[in-house]
Amino acid sequence: MKFLRILIFGALVLLAACQPRAATTAPMDAPTAAPTVTRTLPAATQTAVAPTPTPTAAPLAFCSPLQGLGQADLLARISNPFDPPAPGSDMPHQGVDIGDFDPAGAARMAVPGRGVLAALPGTVALVQPDRFPYGAAVIVETPLEALPAELQAQYRALEDWPPRSPNDALTCPPPPEPFQWDESGQSLYVLYAHLGSTANLNVGDDVACGQALGTVGQSGNALAPHLHFEARIGPAGARPGSLAHYDVSASAQEMAAYCEWRVSGTFRWVDPVEILKSLEKKR
Questions:
Q1: What is the pTM assigned to this prediction?
Q2: How far apart are CA 128 and CA 244, in angstroms?
Q3: Cα–Cα distances in angstroms (integers) from residue 70 to residues 112, 119, 228, 268, 274, in the given order
Q4: Are 129 and 220 in contact (CB under 8 A)?
Q5: For 196-208, how does the pLDDT look when each residue is reduced to its tens digit (9 = 90+)?
Q6: Class of the CATH-defined domain 71-158+171-278
Q7: Which residues 6+ apart lie within 8 Å of 153 measured at CB?
């Protein structure tokens, strides 16, 4: 009996040992959210940008047309003043003559050789050899809008010239080659005449204020060395070629160009002394 109890107990123990155990799973930690990192960016640095200045045209320079002479010297050396005739007439004197005198001579003898300079910056419109009456000469064109306001106003107010009288004795043949210019613009043309020599210039070259154009001489219709300084307002871009008259060697084209320049009203004379006086106004 005792043996039977022992046998039953052993069977129960063995049976308990064979029962499956419930799996025990260790509790998993809840996933930890990644820490939120807040970065504070530095505020953008704004660099103050100065406004770009609007470019303004530099004031136009005026220079003495004779090397080494100031305004007072130039005005004191005018040997033949501006004395314009009625519009359309070729009578003298449509510019000013500025002489250069020997400072050591008591008789104030005119002398050649002083440098002739551009009184205004511009573009070369004419370079001619010794042709009568202007002789060796240079013309420089400066656009009207480049001039000071007071000169612009004065030159824009010029009256048109009346038609030339048919009884005028000046011979003005039609030009074999038509003249060309730009009627939409106006320019100031300054002529430097009776030169002894001309600088190495070509039509279309840009010249600066004070740039050498040649030397004082007595070419053409000149009895003594001097600079003939003449100014006119006319259409932009004119290139007359050569101005000649009163000489058997003058061609029809040269005579036509001379007439166009002197008497047609296309190019109207203005007082060149106004340019000389502007030397003291340059800024």
A1: 0.79
A2: 10
A3: 18, 12, 17, 27, 14
A4: no
A5: 999 999 999 999 9
A6: mainly beta
A7: none
